[in-house]
Amino acid sequence: QVQLVESGGGSVQAGGSLKLSCAVSGYTYSRACMAWFRQTPGKEREGVATIYTSSAKTQYADSVKDRFTISQDNANNTVYLQMNNLKPDDTAMYYCASKPLYCPPQIAGALFGHWGQGTQVTVS
């Protein structure tokens, strides 16, 4: 059974940093696309970043480029999202998601079959 468990959310002031974690189990982690999405009430879900676990190739949404970094710890099947210079617009529920094999050209949620429960990030 695939499980994705996020942690690391919280409240922070603008300009601050947070690091989210996503622990993955029950999955062929070595060749998968791992992603972070975010969503606020009344808004569409936004793909934030992806990493292809085999090559560590990454992709970012323009809104977070140069501020957020997605990374992985293959030994522990964990994906991270380091978020720096946070802005109030970054406030959202953040979700970890996965799909087999390659990352899509666009970070579209419909292509990801497994999701975590989410962790809240609030920037004031």
Chart the SSEs and their pairings.
Blueprint lengths: L2 E5 L2 E3 L5 E8 L6 E8 L6 E7 L4 E4 L7 E6 L4 E6 L8 E9 L13 E2 L3 E5 L1
Parallel strand pairs: 2-11
Antiparallel strand pairs: 1-3, 3-8, 4-5, 4-9, 5-6, 7-8, 9-10, 9-11
Relevant terms:
124 residues; mainly beta; seven-stranded mixed β-sheet; four-stranded antiparallel β-sheet; 0% helix; globular
Give structural notes:
The protein is an all-beta fold and 124 residues long. It is built from no helices and 11 strands. Strands 2, 4, 5, 6, 9, 10 and 11 form a 7-stranded mixed β-sheet that branches. Strand 7 and strand 8 form a beta hairpin. The protein is globular, with a radius of gyration of 13 Å. The N and C termini lie far apart (37 Å).
Secondary-structure content class: mainly beta
Approximate helicity band: under 10%
Q: Looking at the structure, what is the overall shape?
A: globular
- What distance lies between the first and last C-alpha atoms, to the nearest angstrom? 37 Å
Element-by-element helix/strand order: EEEEEEEEEEE
Alpha plus pi helix count: 0
Percent of sequence in beta strands: over 45%
Mean model confidence by pLDDT: 94
Question: What is the radius of gyration computed over CA atoms, rounded to a whole number of angstroms?
Answer: 13 Å
Major sheet: 7 strands, mixed
Query: Tally of extended strands?
Result: 11
Low-confidence stretches: none
Structure, briefly:
The protein is mainly beta and 124 residues long. The chain is built from no helices and eleven strands.
